[in-house]
Amino acid sequence: MIVLRFFVFAVAACAAFKLPVELDIGNINEDLFDVEPLDSGVNYDEVRVKPKPKYILRRVSYGDDNIWDEQGKDCTEVQMLKGGDSIEAVKLVIVGGNGQTESVFAKKIDGSIVIVSEEDFNTAVEEWKKGASSIPVKLDIQQKGESSIFKLKEQVLDGLDVVSFTPKGNYAFDSVFDGEEPIWEPSGSETSSLVALRKFKGEVHLLSLETQGEALYFEKVNGEWKHVDKGTFDEASKKLKSSIETVEQLDFDVTQPADEEKFQVTHKSKGGLRTATANSRAGYQVTKVKFGDSVIWMGFDGETAGSVAIGWQGPTVKLVSIKLFADHTFKKLLYYKNVDGEFQAVTREDFNSTASDIIKERDADDSTDETGSISGSVFSSIVSEKQSPDGEDIDLDISQSADYDRVLVGVGQENDISFSDFMPRGNSTISNVHVGEEPVWKAEKNERCKHVTAYYISEKPKYLKLYLVGKKDPILYGNSKGSWRSLSKRQFDSQLAISAKEVKQAEAKKLQGEQQVEETEDKAPKGALFGFKFGKRERESKEEEQTTPLFKLDLSNPNDAQVRVSKFISVGFETVRCTALPGHAIGEVINGFQAVWNGEGKAKCTESILYYKYGVAKYLILTIDGKKYHFMKMGANISAVEQSEFELAFTADVQTDAILKSEVYLGENVEL
C-alpha cells in the first residue's frame, strides 16, 4: 500500500512538472517553442515566442551571449523585432515567484543583444520603423492568388462574386492596373488601402477602391475602364444582378443545413450565441424563409432574401435576420425572434438586446441546459480572415500548433475549462483529426469537417466536438486512459460537467491553501525568520500604498488577471475591449513594441477599445480620467488624433465596408 501511494504521488508530481529549457533567439527550436507572427512592415517583422505547455523558460540567450537568467523567475514569452534576418530588439515578459509580471528590454549594440532601459528600447524600435510608414506599390487585378504584398478575400454579394485586395504591413496601392491598362493613377501622393472587384460570369465589370477619406468607383464599358459616380456604379451593379439567369427560386428552412452549392455559408460565435450567415449564389433566389412548417417571411413583388442570418441558443434557433432586396437593390434588414416556438417580427433594438443576453450566458456561473451540458461559446475569438486555397484537405493534429494561414483558431474558457476552436479558412475542410499518434476521426466517402472544438484538462486535450458539413449535431469524443472513443451526448455532457466540477474544486483547494499560508504568516512572531519579512504589518502597509495599482496594458497581449477582455464584431470591425478590474487602473498603454500612451503616474486609464480591420489595429479609444481620447494607425504607429479626425476616418471605413462586404450587421455590437 505504501509503495502504491508513493507511485501515485510520483506520477501526479511528474504530470505537473515542467521541463526547464533555454531559448536561443538566433536559433529557435520549434519542438520546444511556438512562434507566432505579430506584425510586419516593409523593413521589419515582429514575432512572439512562447514555450510549449510542458516546458518552462528559464534562460534566454543570443548565440554565446546570455541575455537573461534570473534565479526564481520564469520567462513566459519573448517578443522580437527583426530587420530582415537580423534581430534588432527584444522584449521579455518575466513572472516572479510572487506572481508579479515585469518586462525586460534589450536591443542590439555592436552585434550583441544587451539589456537597456525601456526608453532606449522604444527609441530603437521607433528608429527601425521610421521611413516604413508607407511603401507604394502597383496592383494588377489580373494577378492570381495571395502575394507577399496583399491579402486576397473572395465572397458572394447578392449573386455577384466579389474579390477584395488589402495591402499587407505598410504597403499601399499607389496605382491599379488591369494588365497593361491603367484604371487608377492619382496625380499626388494618394494611396489606396482596399480594392474590390465585382465579377459576373468570371469577368470583372466593376471596381471600387478606398483612399484617404473617400471611396472611388469604376466601370468597364466596351472593354475600357471609366471613373463613375456612386449612382452610376450602383445602377451598373443592379443591371448585372438583373441579368443573372434565375436557376431556381428557393424556400430556406432555418432548421436545416444550407446547401453549400447554392449558398456561401459563414459560421461565427460569440458567448452563448452560435451563428451562420447564408448568402445565395448566382442564379438562386430565396423567396420564402421558413421555420420547419411555419413561414417566417415571404417575398412579394420581386422581393428576395439576399442573405439569411441565423442565431442559435444551444440547439434552438432563437434569432433570424433577413437582408431584403427588391429589384436587385438592397432595401433593409428584417429582424425576427423566437417567442414560445413562433417567430415574430421585432425591432432592431429588441433583436440586439436578445442577442446580447444570449451572448452573456457564457459568463454565468455553473450554466447548464436541461440535459446538464455546459452552455457557452463554441468560438470565442474571431481573428483576421485570411483566405486559403479552395478545396484543400487539412490534417489536423490537436497536439500541435495550428497552421494559422490554413486554420482559423479561437481560444476561450467555459466554467474553468479551457478550449480551442479550429476552423479551416476559405472553403478548405478537415479530413483527418488526431492527437499526436492517437487517431480520433478520419473522413469517409463524402464526409467533411468544418469545425473542431477541443476541451483541455491539465493542459491536455480531453474532449472533442467535430462539426461535419450537412449534419446538425456534432460528433463527440472523450479520452480515456490515453485512447479516444466516441461518446453519446449524454455521456459527453455528463463527463464534461464532472471535469468542470473537479477543476473548480482543485482551484478552490489551491486558493484555500494560499489563504492558510497567509494566516500562518500573520501569526508568526516578529522575531521569527519569515515573520518580519512577510508578516501582516508589512503586507498591510504595501496594500495601503497600492490601493489603486497602475499597470501597463499591452494591447497585443492583454493580461486577464488585470483586465476583463471582451471580443465582438462592431460595425464591421473586429473589436477588443479591455476594462480594468476593480481596484486597478492602467498607467501606460503599449502595442507590442510600440508605445501608445503614458500617464506618467498621474493620469489613469480604465478602458481601451481597439478596432481591427483585416487583422490590423486601426482605431483606438482610451477612457482616461473619465474622458475619451482617440487614436488612429498613422503609418506604422498608433497616434493620438482629434475626435473630429477620428470620426471622419472611422465613418469612411464603415461606409466603405457597407458597400464592399456581404455580412449582415445587427447593431453596434452584434453580428450574425
UniProtKB/TrEMBL annotation:
InterPro entries in UniProt: DUF529
Signal peptide: 1-16
Record key words, sorted: Signal
Name of the featured protein: Signal peptide containing protein
Species the sequence originates in: Theileria equi strain WA
